[in-house]
Design goal:
This protein is an alpha/beta fold. It folds into 2 domains: 155 residues, Aspartate/ornithine carbamoyltransferase (Rossmann fold); 144 residues, Rossmann fold (3-Layer(aba) Sandwich). It contains 13 helices and 11 strands. Helix 11 links the parallel strand 10 and strand 11. The protein binds phosphoric acid mono(formamide)ester (CP).
Length: 312
């Protein structure tokens, strides 16, 4: 595999899940594969899980990870073509990507959306510029529209905990005070569409995700109806896509409660705001899989890096 920038880069999700489970059983089996190879992790935004689990994945493969907080510590990077750089940016992506490619065998990038300029966000300017101007593979650690390492993680976690051949999985919106990206919800939707699950989305009116991503997946505006007979409830807030980047609704009735969850298992990518998105009684119960889910971030990243290293 050359790059991993989207769930669409997964050719066969079932075989990827099985391979990730094998890596989890024996994480150091391929410790020689990444020997003398360097992974550069470039963060334009904050992270806890992605930053640590991707480094751990690299170390499990014998790679040397190096990390940079690009927004705080590097020169401001210009992405525009032909820009007269007499503003705040001091270095162009053409030089930056080419230079980092000389230090790293693989580059992983996190760059969130503006949530103001839909067209710019959907162009994935940062990610596509790194792909264009780097000479090494690129891994998406959450971009404007996708979080494919998280989506793969979620697929692995659901497969591990499924008790039926075709579980019912619900992606539910929940309230949040700030405008959040669509990336996690998009990649989760794309991952579920590749799996043999009964998948539905629950969100208030005005919060439908990009229809090009949801496709024929049923979207319900009644959370109780969506949760009926669910095996897994995956919860995430996102801002409006239609009224791009706006917070239209903070209705606490959409918060996840133990009563609403019933016998279903609870998933969330984390970080999660307690008693806003979900009540304590869910997170502190055996219904919650969030810690096991976060553990799988390592094996999802390790699988992606392994596939890239095998094709270097
Ligand atoms: N789920 C996730 O990506 O967590 P971080 O933002 O902490 O990396």
């Amino acid at each position: 595999m050359k790059h991993y920038t989207s769930i669409n880069d997964i050719d066969n999700i079932n075989s990827w899940i099985e391979e990730a489970k094998q890596l989890k059983e024996n994480p150091l089996k391929h410790i020689e594969l990444g020997k003398n190879k360097t992974l550069g992790l470039l963060f334009f935004n904050s992270s806890l899980r992605t930053r640590l689990s991707t480094q751990k994945a690299a170390l499990n493969l014998g790679m040397n990870p190096i990390v940079m907080n690009v927004s705080g510590d590097a020169w401001g990077i210009e992405f525009g073509d032909g820009t007269v750089m007499n503003g705040n940016t001091a270095e162009h992506i053409k030089e930056a990507a080419a230079v980092v490619s000389q230090y790293c065998d693989v580059i992983a990038v996190r760059a969130f959306p503006t949530l103001i300029d839909k067209e710019k966000d959907e162009s994935e300017q940062v990610l596509t510029s790194f792909k264009k101007f780097s000479s090494v593979p690129i891994v998406n650690m959450e971009s404007a529209t996708g979080h494919p390492l998280q989506g793969l993680t979620d697929a692995i976690t659901i497969s591990e905990h499924a008790k039926t051949k075709k579980p019912k999985v619900v992606l539910s919106w929940a309230p949040h005070i700030k405008a959040l990206p669509h990336a996690v919800a998009n990649s989760f939707t794309q991952a579920m569409q590749k799996m043999d699950v009964e998948f539905v989305i629950a969100n208030p009116k005005g919060y439908n995700l990009n229809p090009e991503i949801t496709g024929s997946t049923p979207v319900l505006h009644n959370q109780y109806e969506a949760f009926r007979d669910a095996d897994f409830v995956y919860v995430k807030n996102w801002s409006s896509y239609e009224d791009y980047g706006k917070v239209l609704n903070t209705d606490p009735n959409w918060m996840i409660t133990k009563e609403k969850l019933g016998n279903a298992k609870f998933l969330h990518c984390l970080p999660v705001r307690r008693n806003v998105i979900v009540e304590d009684a869910v997170l502190d119960s055996n219904s919650s899989l969030v810690i096991q889910q976060a553990n799988n971030r390592t094996y999802a990243a390790q699988l992606v890096l392994k596939k890239i290293l095998e094709d270097l």
